[in-house]
Write a structure and sequence with these properties.
Blueprint lengths: L1 H98 L1
């Protein structure tokens, strides 16, 4: 009876050791995955920072271009108004000369 009890305890011990080994392997696998994920996260963070920096620079450049285009548009509108007035004055003078 003691022998069967000893055999049973030995089997239990072997099973527990096998389970411990499986758990160690699983822990090591998870640690490896954790390192891969951490590395990927760091890479993605760097890529995001670069993208954001480029995007902000493009936005600043677009804002400058918008302001320049608005100034150019205002100047052209002023010139158009001025040239229209000059054309009206010239047309009136021509009309006066025809009558006169």
């Amino acid at each position: 009876r003691r022998q069967t009890e000893a055999q049973r305890l030995l089997r239990v011990k072997q099973q527990q050791e096998a389970q411990i080994e499986r758990m160690r392997n699983e822990i090591n696998r998870l640690k490896g995955q954790k390192d891969v994920v951490a590395s990927r996260m760091k890479y993605e963070e760097q890529q995001y920072r670069l993208w954001k920096k480029r995007w902000l620079e493009r936005m600043r450049e677009a804002t400058k271009q918008k302001a320049a285009l608005q100034r150019q548009n205002q100047e052209q509108c002023k010139r158009l108004v001025q040239k229209t007035r000059e054309a009206d004055q010239s047309a009136r003078k021509v009309e006066e000369l025809r009558r006169g």
